[in-house]
């Protein structure tokens, strides 16, 4: 019998190719740039398994070009790039990479919290531009993070890792909002469930950490920014679509909130004329939540193991809930 074929649509390194090659024929896009859609569609014509970064859309077009496809493995925890209905109809399994990135993403969220509160990026530019003078101390003030209130919207595994840092690292009061209350986490972490509006109104730091679904599209919109404290800092490390970016830009420009720390945007990479690029009270990162060498290499290996399990007819550990049989 012919070996199954797996295509890796990103430069994942030779270790993962070696692992997959023990079981399957393995092809890989080995350039350090995103694979053009046309090349991807050509490369997957005979593929049984596909490993992708989370920004490749798995839709009807892609699925129709890969009639043998049995499994698509995201190297991301989010899977809003999957057309779940189309995948289900074609019996294509989808997997993600949960858990192993929790701590790296939580660290990144705190990078955003601290750098916005203490204006680290803005003041780095200030030093480099030779603007630092004796006596300008007051111009350099930021706000405290410790002992203040953080509100986490979406208390999944990453949300819990953020709560832990906030509570035990920074003595913060931690509020959370989630579809379901999490009593065990409340007891373990000493955190409090709050209604959505209460959290928005009371928090000094509002962290958006929900997956992007139909229900969370623009969850934070004009109304929510109006309800925030004018000293609040808004952090988004989930998906750009969970916030109305126009409303956010307005709130940052007219002093409705103090600042924002963003890792995600409505359009990625960010467009050159995005007004966020002109604002000083926002820290902008290029969607790097899980992007440490160790975590990303663990994620690609996890995706590869998922692919091999499915292709060997075994149960894969990380099939996304909507596509579980
Ligand atoms: C990154 O955004 C992920 O979903 O892992």
UniProtKB/TrEMBL annotation:
Keywords: Oxidoreductase. Residues 110-289 form the D-isomer specific 2-hydroxyacid dehydrogenase NAD-binding domain. GO terms for cellular component: cytosol. Pfam families: 2-Hacid_dh (PF00389), 2-Hacid_dh_C (PF02826). One of its GO terms (molecular function) is glyoxylate reductase (NADPH) activity. Residues 6-320 form the D-isomer specific 2-hydroxyacid dehydrogenase catalytic domain. The keyword Hydrolase does not apply. Coiled coil: none annotated. Belongs to the D-isomer specific 2-hydroxyacid dehydrogenase family. This is Gluconate 2-dehydrogenase. It comes from Clostridium acidisoli DSM 12555.
